[in-house]
Amino acid sequence: MTSSLRIKVHLSPGASADLQRLNERALKNPHGKEEALLEAAIVMLHRLNGRRHPTKPLDYSPHFADLSDCDTTYVGADPYEKPPLRIVSRDIRPSRPDGITRREIVAIGARQDSKVYRVAGQRLGRPVGITLAELAAQREPAADPSRSCQRSVAGFDAPSADEPDLLLE
Questions:
Q1: CB-count burial class (<10 Å; 0-12, 13-18, 19+) for 142
Q2: Residue (of 151, 29, 140, 126) closest to 70 by Cα position
Q3: What pLDDT was estimated at residue 97?
Q4: How far apart are the two ends of the chain, measured CA to CA in Å?
């Protein structure tokens, strides 16, 4: 028997608001491009729940906040156009081997001018031009000495346990 990767998709409050804005635009123009784009985004969120998800790892760039622990997914409704939306997500591995990977959707937004990546960096509270390693080193002295190094690096910016989750199956 093959075990499947268990992923629980979590829409951050910001991503939930992004999806709501897409919905509002779709309601203003039913049966138009906006509605098709909303539907494509919802389908992609369901696909992100599976083992094989169409993502591309992000690299560090000094012109943006470091999102190298995140992935991007291209979303479009017209196969003849470059996909206009991006979904930025990151996987938060479980602490137990039998746990569920939490895929946090950080931002859903426009590809144009890399806006979605700027928003994702802001939502994660990351400054521009500083790597995650540099950021962790800056935070380490202020950390509680009883916390393990792995926990302080892997746990920062993680969603709180009381935030609502969206479980897509």
A1: exposed
A2: 126
A3: 84
A4: 20
Structure tokens at 8: 């629980």
- C-alpha gyration radius of the chain: 17
User: What confidence tens digit (pLDDT) does each residue in 97-109 have?
Assistant: 888 889 999 999 9
Measured between alpha carbons, how far is residue 47 from residues 9, 51, 55, 67, 74 in Å? 10, 9, 10, 21, 12
> Tokens 């993680």, residue?
158
Q: What is the pLDDT of residue 4?
A: 56
Ranges of beta strands (E only) in 76-155 are 85-92, 101-110
Sequence-ordered list of residues with C-beta below 8 angstroms from that of 99, at least 6 positions apart, any chain: 6, 93
Single pTM value for the model: 0.78
